[in-house]
Amino acid sequence: MSSVNQKIFVTGHRGLVGRAVVRAIQDRGHCELLTCDRSDLDLRDPAAVETWFSKNRPDLVIHCAGRVGGIQANANLPVDFFYDNAAMHMNVLHAAWRHSVSKLLFLGSSCIYPRDCPQPIREEYLLTGPLEPTNEAYALAKVTGVRSCQYYREQYGCNFVAAMPTNLYGPFDNFDLETSHVLPALIRKFHDAKLRGEPDVVVWGTGTARREFLHVDDLAEACLFLMDTYNEAAPINIGTGVDISIGELAQLVRSIVYPTARIVLDASRPDGTPRKLLNMDRLHGLGWRHRIKLQEGIRDTYDWFTKFSTDLAN
Length: 314
Ligand code: GFB
Description:
Layout: E1 7-11, H1 16-28, E2 32-34, H2 46-56, E3 60-63, H3 71-76, H4 78-98, E4 103-107, H5 136-156, E5 160-165, E6 167-169, H6 182-196, E7 200-204, E8 210-211, E9 213-215, H7 216-229, E10 236-238, E11 244-245, H8 246-257, E12 262-266, H9 281-286, H10 294-308
Parallel strand pairs: 1-2, 1-3, 3-4, 4-5, 5-10, 6-9, 7-12
Antiparallel strand pairs: 8-11
Helix pairs in contact: 1-7, 2-4, 4-5, 6-8, 8-10
Bound molecules: guanosine-5'-diphosphate-beta-L-fucopyranose (GFB).
Residues 70-72, 74, 109, 111, 135, 138, 167, 180-182, 185, 203-205, 209, 211, 246, 269-273 line the site of guanosine-5'-diphosphate-beta-L-fucopyranose (GFB).
């Protein structure tokens, strides 16, 4: 991404990941940034995507758009999570090939590895076992995206690469309690309980599941690092290499947002995958490491939430 004249299309620029990638590109300032609102381009529509690529001819693509959500949203809406994500990446990858995009970065997810694969998870474990049932639809869509990058590389010589981010968090996350991921949900739950003077905060599951969390600004830097340096067929993990139990995470969020709250575990809710810690040997070996520590990142995200979230406690 060193050439000033290159046009880079960031899909999903209004989402958690897309906004962070746009911020990182703008901070670097040496690319022409292309974005398009969903109202102007539905990435699920193949003809519309083809027309957009034909008109705008991006040199580079970072595909951040996706239908995403936490464990409950994934379990409730398998058709939406499969169809929307599969349709978007099929259209974007096909148009990128047809219009000779010089490099495309596709984002998978740590949740698409087999449910019970050895930990920490190495990239080669993909497709070696059954998926986690609570998000199988999303995972299958993302697996087809990762493999599609390899098919376009094999058949047409496209430089399409795939990264596998771990659980992400940060500003402009989704804080809706039914559809969000765990970290924004806990921030909002402790915040709302504090505002309402409620002593208890309900945390789903047994609290024993373990998750790895990467701040989205670190992810964005990793994406630009990979755009500059990585041209291999194999997917590459992006994480911190450190995980935490949901119970410990709830205590950490409590200490930042509402220290006197009482944590109540609701074991009727699913734990999901017991653990999905990424092996970071490859990306660390290439010279990239995350910078933002979890406690600092949660504090910054809470500051953002209290300042900018329009729907605080309705
Ligand atoms: O982020 P999350 O919803 O999804 O985390 P996954 C779920 C874990 O957090 C489970 C616990 O162990 C839940 O029991 N948890 C506790 C909560 N309290 C809450 C809460 O209030 N809300 C939520 N959402 N969870 C996702 C995939 O899996 O990983 C997505 O479903 C995506 O597709 C993402 O890939 C990276 O981490 O289990």
